[in-house]
Amino acid sequence: MRLVFAGTPVVAVPALRLLAERHEVVAVLTRRDAELGRKRVLTPSPVAAAAEELGIETIKANRLDESVTERIRALAPELGVIVAYGGLVREPLLSTPRLGWVNLHFSLLPAWRGAAPVQHAVIAGDEVTGAAVFQLVPELDAGAVFSELTRPIGADETAGDVLDALSQSGAELLAGTVDALASGTAVAVEQTGDVTLAPKLSLADAHLDFGQPADAVYARLRGVTPEPGAFAMLGDDRFKLIAARQVADADPLPAGAVALQGKRVVVGTGTHPLELLTVQPAGKKAMAAADWWRGLPTGSELVLR
Fold this sequence. Notes:
The protein is about 25% helix and about 25% strand. The protein has helices spanning about 15-20, 45-55, 65-75, 115-125, 160-185, 215-225, 290-295; strands at about 1-5, 25-30, 35, 40-45, 60, 80-85, 100-105, 130-135, 145-150, 230-235, 235-245, 255-260, 265, 275-280, 285-290, 300-305. A hairpin with a 6-residue loop joins strand 13 and strand 14 (about 275-280). Helix 1 (about 15-20) packs parallel to helix 2 (about 45-55), helix 1 (about 15-20) runs parallel beside helix 5 (about 160-185) and helix 4 runs antiparallel to helix 6.
């Protein structure tokens, strides 16, 4: 079947590669090259890089305007497939492929509709998540579902860990659905249940509040890792928290207070302390929390807020 594929980040790459093995991907739609890193180097999206490797025509656009629609219409795709493109597909592009568009979404719809479903699921403390392939409609992530899968969220998994896993299993789910659409055997079921929303995370969402219970602080840290990246304020500087873990036997500490207990660097929360594993002070590279602590002046009293 002739497909047009829309996607941008690395989690969309496994789906593109698998579909290109099974079907004719006539074009890839992705967002424009972005300036990355401290030197602001103009860099193609991971999907654009994969498309070039596969020899597929690439359309780079941040806005799906009339010119983009005409380019896609000229290719006569039978189906559009979208995986984390980073923009909305509206009419007339929505109806341009004969079978419309299907979307691989990393949640169990109607839970966590929106741009950051896995991140919100981890922050909320969900024990199970999954992926769904649904028919794209004008309303956000509201179309009928063709297929879905479930997976547990590990107690120490970050959002990045879960997304990496779902990008692989979701690619198989999506390819199977496209195969069924090509053969005319696909059946979609309308969504039922409570709707929850998962808007894109801002930097403010990554600011940890150590006055909350340890479970909530740890869930938020995992949910915003690797992006936008957990942090707290240390004095006037942003102090990044790359990795931590729950501990059962740490001595109580005031919320946000940092201390060395035995060989562990711990920080107080609204309940019991968390152990800091990897941190990144302002202006420095990420390092083991124990190494950071050893470099501090003797007798330092630190509070993260």
